[in-house]
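ok trying again, last paste got cut off:
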Amino acid sequence: MPVPSSSSARPARRLAHALLEIGAVSLRPHEPFAWSSGLRAPIYCDNRRTLAHPRVRTLIADAFAEAVRAQGGDTPTVAGTATAGIPHAAWLAERLDAPMAYVRSAAKAHGQGRRIEGARLSSGKAAVVVEDLLSTGGSALEAVSAVRETGAAVQGVLAIFSYGLDAADAAFAKAGVERHVLTTFPTLLEVAHRDHGLSDEARALLEDWRADPEAWSRAHGA
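nice, full thing came through this time. structure:
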């Protein structure tokens, strides 16, 4: 489940265009966004907006299904991260005729105290984890850890978009988890520059942020 290669460049550009068109990804290099972490960034991704656009969510589900089928083998259980990964996991599971589960950020404090709801995962079963967005990779890898605790084998993480941060690369490598991202930060900048009026200067600011997000944040008032 690699990051998109040149063979998937066209669908990656198509999705990047769609995300920009519906406002799921916003670029503001001169008026940075405040992230919940306290960092300031020239980009903000809200893939929940895809839920309102049938054409875009269909594009995503079809691309996820293609990625899973390309692996071959038995159909895995589809496990969505709560909450943003749940709807995309449901649409993917429908296409694959696969069992579905979702992974809470923590086990319930009441009832049966489950962290994973839906399909029962156990040793010998395979699963893919569906996330809407990868930044540092922390939330997706927490879900992977929860799935692995059941004994199931995680075939990889599927995500709509990645900021392409080095921290995520390091975290996934350390965890030994493959990922398939439908579209990436460099592709988004290419499409925004070519088709959505992103200036050369703004593109350079965004590339500077990508090179060192913390230093860029400090330089822009964090």
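cool. The domain at 6-219 is CATH 3.40.50.2020 (Rossmann fold). The first strand starts at residue 25 and ends at 27.
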